Hints:
By secondary structure, the chain is mainly α. The chain is 77% helix and 0% strand. The protein is built from 15 helices and no strands. The longest helix is centred in the middle third of the chain and has 50 residues, at 137-186. The protein is globular, with a radius of gyration of 20 Å.
Amino acid sequence: MKEPTPTVAPPLITRDFVLLFAAHFLFGLSFWPYVLLPVFLQTLGFDLFKVGVVIGTASLAGIVARPWVGGALDRIGRRRCLMIGGLLFLAANLSYLGIHSSGGEIYFVRLLHGLGMGVLMATFFTLAADLSPATRRTEGIALFGISGHLSGSIGVLWGEQVIRLGGYAALFISGALLALLSLIMGLLIDEPVRGAQGERSQDRFLEIAFRPALRLPLVATVAFSFSMTSYMVFLKPYALTVGIGSMTHFFIAYTLTAVAVRLIGSRWPDRFGLKWVLYPAMVSMAIGILVLFFRPTLAGLAVGGMLAGVGHGFIFPILSSMILGREREENRGGVMTLFTMLYDFGLFIGAPLLGWVAQGGRYGAMFWVAASVLTGSLFAFVIFDSTGGHSR
């Protein structure tokens, strides 16, 4: 009797996957230092609510652009979208050099910034899905995401040092150079072969947004990014009010923990089930957010960063993989664009709302709201989602 041929897992780490990893890493080094931008805005005279509005403006641009991006990814290709997004993001970094007051110019720059990021994020994660074998997609997206977390562990510390040595102008120039390097690296990626397109991508995008099976994963995506806003936007001002000069402890712990989680547990969601890993990850992130308030020390920042990092390390790839698994393969560009659009939407509503809550030093209330929103989406999942982790 002939022995069965052992199943060999398809390769994941390919030339294009490595190039994509590098392009996203360089993009992250340019992006992450902008968590320091709220302090720059405060020096221009913005209060916390207006800081939130300015920060949220970038997300608005990304949201508005997403329906076009969803169609463009399938119509003109991934590489052309990378070029468009990369040039916009490069221009935005340079445009910050012209901001010297609290006038309306900053809103235009933030719109440009968000437009570039919106195109790039949708394209990067669509490429990550393209370049990951279907049977290893959660693992592939998780490993790809390590590039962003690695850049985060370096980027915030890098940004603080650059500002210390050359001010915010040096930060904006260094961001532009890193954005240019990311663009060059991305354009070396070969255009993936795409399947049949069927109906127009714009129509598909609108239809996908209302799929019943996608509702709770998409709501959880909004809740996830909304909760992230509490530390991505307001941690630096909070740290200054409690006498902590640097938030590097948080972001190093956060990003390195997320990297470790993805290296060690990248196959856990596919092995144990997406929801069985997603739920504890959401709890971990919510607790991490609350630790920032209850332990306003360097050690507290580190512990909060570790717990939130565990959450982020699993939540993002699981939700993206879950959404992909509940939609047809030929709609990949549209569904990943929708996912990243709603990720931006959480930041868009979170920045001004949490900034308003934090007015007058009410950071504790802000952290409680952020943690409660994430926990609420967890309960909604447990109670109302009867769909399996992967179903089309």
